[in-house]
Each structure stands twice: as structure tokens, then as C-alpha cells.
Amino acid sequence: MAVRTVGHNQATMNGLREKVLTLDTMNACVKRVEYAVRGPIVLRALELEQELSQGVKKPFTEVIRANIGDAHAMGQKPITFLRQVLALCVHPDLQNSPDFPEDAKRKARSILQACGGHSLGAYSNSSGIQPIREHVAQYIQRRDGGIPADPNNIFLSTGASDAIVTVLKLLVAGEGRCRTGVLIPIPQYPLYSAALAELDAVQVDYYLDEDRAWALDVAELRRALCQARGHCLPRVLCIINPGNPTGQVQTRECIEAVIRFAFEERLFLMADEVYQDNVYAEGSQFHSFKKVLMEMGPPYSTQQELASFHSISKGYMGECGLRGGYMEVVNMDPAVQQQMQKLVSVRLCPPLPGQVALDVVVSPPEPSDPSFAQFQAEKQEVLAQLAAKAKLTEQVFNEAPGIRCNPVQGAMYSFPRIQLPPRAVRRAKELGQAPDMFFCLRLLEETGICVVPGCGFGQREGTYHFRMTILPAAEKLRPLLEKLSQFHAKFTREYS
Amino acid sequence: MAVRTVGHNQATMNGLREKVLTLDTMNACVKRVEYAVRGPIVLRALELEQELSQGVKKPFTEVIRANIGDAHAMGQKPITFLRQVLALCVHPDLQNSPDFPEDAKRKARSILQACGGHSLGAYSNSSGIQPIREHVAQYIQRRDGGIPADPNNIFLSTGASDAIVTVLKLLVAGEGRCRTGVLIPIPQYPLYSAALAELDAVQVDYYLDEDRAWALDVAELRRALCQARGHCLPRVLCIINPGNPTGQVQTRECIEAVIRFAFEERLFLMADEVYQDNVYAEGSQFHSFKKVLMEMGPPYSTQQELASFHSISKGYMGECGLRGGYMEVVNMDPAVQQQMQKLVSVRLCPPLPGQVALDVVVSPPEPSDPSFAQFQAEKQEVLAQLAAKAKLTEQVFNEAPGIRCNPVQGAMYSFPRIQLPPRAVRRAKELGQAPDMFFCLRLLEETGICVVPGCGFGQREGTYHFRMTILPAAEKLRPLLEKLSQFHAKFTREYS
């Protein structure tokens, strides 16, 4: 008897029918989607963790997941006040507990007051709980030095990814040479490439300038746009500031130039500003696109279309698992805004616990509140630690030959460039792997350190990088960085 | 000077440019999306609530939102144990509180043990927390009389809607006459029509038989399929059981016949079973498609592809706001399943609070646990109330001339047929409204009762219906049903 193999043709030969849904018959756009942050390297990390837990011997005792901006998973503690408010909302009997401060109780009461049946178990409006939208608007107004924000232009979301995909969905249209083109930075956060593949839009790459600390250059935007105009209709410009994976913080001048460019070229602006609280470098400061746009005055302030995105997953709170965020739209056609309202209503509403957490972030305790001091202390502690780790990362990597790391001005990642010996590059190609994927897989197998290769974010041809979070605990980070640098040296020797 | 008007052409004439994103340039598929459950009638209800709160006089004192299955908003209390576990997960300091039972504490500890950094703030695996997937599999196995379920085939989700759209997304392919056709019941839950419009798939309607209590008839499936084959490639059959909005519970024989049909016609089966705990009528019983499929044996059990969906928003818990659910896939091509895994990873993970709530639903307290008695009492109380309200609804409506209501065997809605006088139909057409939309809007304006017209779900040409939830509190429901019946009588007189 023939040995039984699992396989397409074999199955058919054995008398089983083809399945209705196969790789051949499925949605081809979905097949093209790639998402490196949770890709093959992370699946391998999972397997290694399982092997370790089963007692299999490895050259390391734990897998360090430095692949994803997941602060709590790396040991960061939740902000106490945020969790107190959320617990009070989930289980209102706690209003009688002496262990919760008065301001947390008050906030929970006011949130539940705005919920159907005074319960987090009711659906909210599809754009979010109304008073929370108002708090978001007030937060933006404070952040932007008094420039007003309209609660009707705020849409709460299931993390920023959800809102970004919603806006892209509205913008995607046309066929052939009239398909919507979307300019995205390279390196990029791969949500963008994944969403564009799924929506069958045209990805238009503009390169950030590694030699100038990943600065965005309008001349490069213009090059990318001109080249794209031959084969699609570029209508959208995506910006990530502070940068992911690249960590740069854009100057005010740069933002002005980008807005002017978008206006002249008739591009809808999407500003991914989820790391707005994560700015560490001296001299760097976060400027929101909304603020700069408004300060530039007409015609920019009155006509340039903008959607900007924020999240509770990053910043100092790191509440990834709750899935919360918001977007603000500016100068959007009211009829389109109604269409967006309709579209989000099909998914009913963003999760209420995430909305609650967002409310705490945008309307935290005031100086006169009992929780103010602790809230501020916890927040500053997290941000100070991140700033120190950003600096340490840059420093340790730049001491290593063959690794060059731009300053981590903001966000949560370093994206160092690595030299790989030609023999390693050839070996990778033999294995059908990108050279930095090959490097990262070897790194994982030998050290347990899980980082994402540059090929998952995009990079200039012939350059190699990896993205590593700065989130591991301070006492772990230095040895980790050194171990990684040493592995790179060993890898280089091995393939020289 | 000309009076300033807001308008497209006017704007252009005033020297303002066209926006980049307009109704003309936006995604045409999104424009075609409709979602009646949160449509115009609900927006009007919102306005009326605002007017009431501002002291505007109306013929009613409150708006009754009987448009959506939102149990907590209608006053249903959360299940105590579920909220205790969730509060303990959100705020682990509560482990020291004497106010929480030992089994809730134990469950919370075991959930947090499986979370990154032991925090709900960490991302989970994209398919959900592993032990929760295992509990779901055990739950299915118990529910289905011991037929095994594989945790690797379970994907947790952000409510059922999210999972349904994910599977449809995989299935949609082709162009022109080869576009994927998806058979859906009429009347249907409008998530389906909305998702198909957005994905640009072909909606293929099969009609449920109102005269036989909304039974599903295979001859009608065959008719719909044959007719569709002329202009698309039908590859998917969606079933909603218990029915939404129609409330029927399918017999085992019917399910077998549907499975046989799907197998013969090579259709991927999608079974929306979110109301599986909501079965009220004597003689009615829930049979899962998975169980029937497996009991039918080969080739069905080994080859028929199926995805089935469940949610924490319905049942006895009604935790809509937490956004949780799962799907189980059966006989799916492993390569496609990998593609699905990849696709869901782009959105990172379902919200962790919803995962926690799901865990409580699928692995509730056992008879030996301290919370068992209260959990069961609360659950049975909700279900008994719903059963009584289902019966009451049918009874009151059927006493009214011109209203005919099938038994509400399951789910959470009645979908009565209403006679509308020809003059009302003509008047509606003059206003550009569907006749039952006209009726429902008038009902809302005069009584404050918000229900969804049948046109939002689909119905046979020339018939009119509305969907009303059975969720209002018992003491409110009878007067509400009577008020609605009286309004229908008055409306009929007015237009006769």
C-alpha cells in the first residue's frame, strides 16, 4: 500500500473531493496580506516556548518577546487609577468598598450614567459613549494649545488599527490605472501594507532617510508621487509620527512642509499619532498634524482633509488587550462622514472596557483629586524608564561593530541597521529567506530573543535591519542588548 | 450679497476646491452598505431622546429602544459571577477582598496566569487565550453530547459579527459571473447584506416560509441556487438558527436536509448560532450544525466545510458591550485555516475582557463550587422571563386585527406581519419611504416605541413587518405591546 501523505492531489486521488474553500479558490487579496509583527518568527517563538515548558533543552531559559509593543507582557504594571475605574465600572458593587478612592468612584459613576442600563454590557453608540467623545475633544484641545476640537468629529475605535482600516476602506476606489494609491513610509508599520493588500489598493512607497535619523523629506514624497501617477491615482498620504518602527519625531517644519505638499497634490492625510506620549529625545517634541494644520490658517485649516489616530495600547498605559482608541477627522465631507458613521454601525460599537480606559487617559485625575499624585508618579515613572531605555539601546548598539542605530527619539522601538556578510546573504537566499529573516531566526534559535526582521517593514534594497522594542525591564535590557550584539559578532565571524 | 448655502456646487463656486474624499470619489461598495438595526430610525430615536431631555413636549415620556437585542440597556442585570471574575482580572488587588467568592478568585487567577505579564493589558494570541480556546472546545463537546471539538479549530473574536465577516472575506473571490454568491435567508440579520455589499459579493436570497412559522425549505434553497447560477458562482450558504429576526428554531430533520443540500451543491456552510441558549417554545430544541454534521457520518462528517458562530452578547448573559465571541471551523482546508490565522493577526487580538466573559460562559461554576447555585438561579431567571415574554408577545399581537405573529420559538425578537392600508402605502411611496418604514417612523413619533421595519431585513414583495425585541421588562412589555397594537389600529383607521 502507498504511504499516506497529506496533500491536495493525493486527497483527490483517494476519492475525497476538493474542498470548496482552498488556496486556489480563496480571496487572492487576503492571500497577499503579510504581517511580520506576528509572522513566522513569532510562530516559531511560540513553539520554542512550548518546547521549553516541556523540558526540552535549549541554549536559553526563556523566550524574550521583543517583537511587539506589548508593555504589560514585558512586565510594565497597569496604571492603578485606570484599573480602579474599570473595576468599578465592571462591578458597581465596589462603590461600597473602602479600598477605592473617591475620584475613581465618581468617574465610574459618571461613565455608567452614560451607558445603556448603566452597564458596560450594553452597546454604546457606534462612534462611542457621548461624554467620552466630549472628553476626547477636550483632551485634544488642551494638547493643541486651545485649538478647538468637535466631539462630532471624534470616533472611538477598537484600537487604532480598526480606525485606520475604516478610513482606508472609504478611500479605496477605482480600477486599473484609476485605483487609489496610498503613500506610506518605508520602513512602515505593516498594518498599512496588510490593509492595502486586503483592500486591493496600490501601495506607494516613500523612503525615510536613514542617514538623517529617518527624517521625512518632501522631495522624496514628490518622487514617489510622480512615479506612482503612471499606474494609479494617489489620493492618500500616511504619516507615522513618532515613527514606527523607526522612532523619529518629526519637526514642526517638516510637518508644515508635508501639509503643504498634501494640499498642493490633493492628498487625504492620515496621521498615525499613537506614540504621541512617547517622546524621549532632548529637543524633540510632539506636534500634532491637527495643530499645525490649524495654525497654518486658510486654505490649509479650512480645506485640507485629515484623519488622525490615537490608541490606549501605547503611551504610558500600554493597555493593548483592552483594544481602545479614537480618531479625529478634520475637514471631512459631511456626507462622507455620515457614510463612515453608517459603516462603523455595522460592527455595533467599540468594546466598552477600552472606551473606559480611553476616558481615563483623556481625562485623568486633576491636581485637586485624591488620585492625582499617584497617577502622575506612575505615568512619569513609566515614561522616564522608557526614555532611559531608548538611550541605552542606541548606546549599546552603536558600540557594536556592524550595527548602527539611529537615536530612538520616540515610540517604543529601535530599528538598527546590521551588516551581514555576503556568505550569510547567499545562504539565506539558498534557503529562500530574506537575509535579515535568516539572521533573526538564527538569533531566536540560539538566544531566545525574538525580534522582527527589517524585511517585514520594508527597507532600501541591500540594507538589513531588525525592530526590537525598548520594553524589556531595565535590568534585563542591557544584558539583552549585549547578548544580541555578541550574537551578531559571532554570526558575522561564522559567515566571513 | 448672496445668502450663504452649504452645498457641493456652491462650495466650488465660492472658490473652495472639491474635497479629495466625496460621495463621488469614495468606495462605491461602502456606499451600498445598509444596516437598518442602527439606521435612520435609530438616529431619529436619538434625536427624540435629546429633545425629551431638553424638555420638549412629546406624546410620550421616554423612547423605548426595542430595535436592538441589547439586554442590559433594557434593564437586564449582569450575571454576578461573570462580573466578579472580570473585576478580579481587571484589578487583581481584589484577590485580597473578602467580598469575592473563592471560585471567582480561582478562575481569575487561572485566566491571568495565561495572560502576558499576567495582565488583561497584554495582547493575547490572535486566535485568543489558549486555555479559553480549550474551554470553548470542552463546552462544544458537552453541548454536542460528547462529539469532540479541537481547540485548534476555535478562534475567539470581537463578537460574532467580526468572525462572520472574517470568514466571508476569505470566501469572496472572482469577477463578473464568477463572483462568489452567498445564500442568505430572507428575512435576514442585516450584518449579512451589509458585509456582502462591502465585500462586493453577490447576495443570493432564499425565502423563509412565513406560513410555516418561518421554516427553511430545501426546495426554496434549490430554487434560489438555480436562479443564481446564471449570474454568479454560489459557494456559501448562511443559516441563522435560532432565527434573527424570525425567531424560528430549526428541526433536526431540516438541518440534516440543509447539510445534504450543501454537500451536494458544494456550498461552504456558515451557521450563525448566537441564539443557541435562547430557545423557549415547547417541543423546540437547539441542534448545532456541527453535531448533526458529525452524526450524519461520512462523507458529511469528513468533508462538509462548516464555520459556526457564537457570541457573549445574547443568551442569558447579554454582554454586548464587552464584544466577545468565537467561531469553530470544521473540515476547513488547513492551508486556508493558516491564511485565516494570518488575517486575524493583523488586528492583533480580540478584546481580553470579552475573552474573559466568554470563558465564564463556556466554563461556568460547577455544582461543587460556591457560586454554582446563584449562577444557575440568575441564568434560569433570565431565560424563564424571556420565555414568558416570547409567549406574551405572540399572544398580544395575535389578538390585534391586522397583525399576525408567528410563535417566537427562540432568539430575542418577534417579527409580526402587519397589514397596511393601500392609502398608507401610497403615502409612503410619495415620501420615498418603504411602507413599513413609514409606519415605524410614525409609531416612533407618536409613541416613542422604536422598532425596525421589515424592509431592513428583507421580506416578500408586498408584505410588511417590523422587528421588535422581547427584552423590555416584564411589567413594561404588555402595555407596550398593547400600545403598539392600538397605534396600528389607529393608523389603519387614519389611512382607510
Automatic annotation (TrEMBL), chains A, B:
Function recorded in the entry: Catalyzes the reversible transamination between alanine and 2-oxoglutarate to form pyruvate and glutamate. Participates in cellular nitrogen metabolism and also in liver gluconeogenesis starting with precursors transported from skeletal muscles.
One Pfam family hit: Aminotran_1_2
Record GO biological process: L-alanine catabolic process
Family: Belongs to the class-I pyridoxal-phosphate-dependent aminotransferase family. Alanine aminotransferase subfamily.
Name of this chain's protein: Alanine aminotransferase 1
Keywords, ordered alphabetically: Acetylation, Aminotransferase, Cytoplasm, Phosphoprotein, Pyridoxal phosphate, Transferase
EC class name: transferase
Keyword Phosphoprotein: yes
Pathway: Amino-acid degradation; L-alanine degradation via transaminase pathway; pyruvate from L-alanine: step 1/1
SUPFAM superfamilies: PLP-dependent transferases
Tagged with keyword Plastid: no
Cofactor(s) needed: pyridoxal 5'-phosphate
Subunit (UniProt): Homodimer.
EC number assigned by the record: 2.6.1.2
Compartments (UniProt record): Cytoplasm
CDD domains for this protein: AAT_like
One GO CC term on file: extracellular space
Domain Aminotransferase class I/classII large intervals: 101-484
GO molecular function, one term: L-alanine:2-oxoglutarate aminotransferase activity
Coiled coil start-end: none
The species this protein was found in: Pipistrellus kuhlii (Kuhl's pipistrelle)
Catalytic activities: L-alanine + 2-oxoglutarate = pyruvate + L-glutamate
